[in-house]
Amino acid sequence: xxxxxxxxxxxxxxxxxxxxxxxxxxxxxxxxxxxxxxxxxxxxxxxxxxxxxxxxxxxxxxxxxxxxxxxxxxxxxxxxxxxxxxxxxxxxxxxxxxxxxxxxxxxxxxxxxxxxxxxxxxxxxxxxxxxxxxxxxxxxxxxxxxxxxxxxxxxxxxxxxxxxxxxxxxxxxxxxxxxxxxxxxxxxxxxxxxxxxxxxxxxxxxxxxxxxxxxxxxxxxxxxxxxxxxxxxxxxxxxxxxxxxxxxxxxxxxxxxxxxxxxxxxxxxxxxxxxxxxxxxxxxxxxxxxxxxxxxxxxxxxxxxxxxxxxxxxxxxxxxxxxxxxxxxxxxxxxxxxxxxxxxxxxxxxxxxxxxxxxxxxxxxxxxxxxxxxxxxxxxxxxxxxxxxxxxxxxxxxxxxxxxxxxxxxxxxxxxxxxxxxxxxxxxxxxxxxxxxxxxxxxxxxxxxxxxxxxxxxxxxxxxxxxxxxxxxxxxxxxxxxxxxxxxxxxx
Length: 492
What we know:
Elements: H1 5-17, E1 26-29, H2 38-48, E2 54-57, E3 67-69, H3 75-81, H4 91-101, E4 109-110, E5 121-124, E6 146-147, E7 151-155, E8 162-166, E9 168-173, E10 176-180, H5 186-197, E11 201-207, H6 211-216, H7 228-236, E12 241-244, E13 251-253, E14 258-264, E15 271-273, E16 287-299, E17 305-306, H8 313-334, E18 338-344, E19 347-352, H9 359-370, E20 376-380, H10 389-398, H11 402-405, E21 406-413, E22 435-442, H12 457-460, H13 464-467, H14 479-483
Parallel strand pairs: 1-2, 3-17, 4-12, 19-20, 20-22
Antiparallel strand pairs: 2-3, 5-16, 6-9, 7-8, 7-11, 9-10, 10-16, 11-14, 12-13, 14-16, 15-16, 18-19, 21-22
């Protein structure tokens, strides 16, 4: 059977029953829940207790559809989604799992309507009503109800290649949605191109599929090259089944729970939305959005509505790891000796084997290029353990020469959701635009000058560090934590 949301939920239940989760699991709620804040409070309270289960609500007041949430809330469910060995269900392990699968794109597989569960119910014309869906309000302040886990498909008018991105969509009427397509993303360039050509832009938003599909839809940089739906096939390990839309000339996932089809009639014109609790934990209104006229809703007869809590860690984890892989790829293009990248403390850290002077700055610059949401990138030496705070602090405090190693880049494209971003008048925080001032930091030591010898477990104990086992002394120890000590990491 082809993979979809339902096959994944069954997998989660099986792992839960076998006791295979430490933080994740499956939490079913069989009493009615309110769409106003209630599911999010449950999810946040579980997180405070260190639990990140997939949540399934049988009944949501005001709708006949159940609701599922928190599919990306833990490294364990992310690992399960891509078929990773449980030993790799960690942030570091999944980075390399994603790196392998990111380049295994598979063409989609077109199936007839009769084999597409998402076509079991078709609502069009006067029957279109977004109020039938259990769309929640997630926090206060928030400008009403938002579709948060929707993957929006559009088509490049020049190449005909479909593009998919994950954006926020505000309900603005029974058959109208606001679509905030982030500046700098591929979908924004496609909208600009439609505006140049004077054409309306057909779109389709699908919800409720295997989480590997949603993760793949967070890829970027594919414009004019390939579709994120092909990336999804690589993550699934099988071609993604698609079917033709009802009212739009687009192919949509056949095994999604529901699809909302529509048209942005005037890509030159925008409305505003918000406030909305974004992944950076800020909520602000007045952001420009396109207006989508809904032309059809297709769904399974027993469709499950898929939601994502935007102020929960699953929002950052949905595509955050994949973005790191794309940063790694951008750095590797110019510094082939890059070893690893990690996002920590709001910055991206790049570990390299430096070969010539200036390469640290080049690596950090490439990291900023690899993902425009990154505002600070730090390059460090090969002997720095990115997963140890003491090592990161050592690089910043004892290898960075601030007047030489820090470069400021003003007025560059950044995240318009970051409160430090600014518009063309340079008004930070007042009218947030897509520009930012970014920092690249070279915290590598000089290559051909004398430098102090660093004391690490490997060079301080003359081989005893590798051979001595605490278990031989009757001392229980967590092997994974022991390996996280400064300098004690495998060379990749």
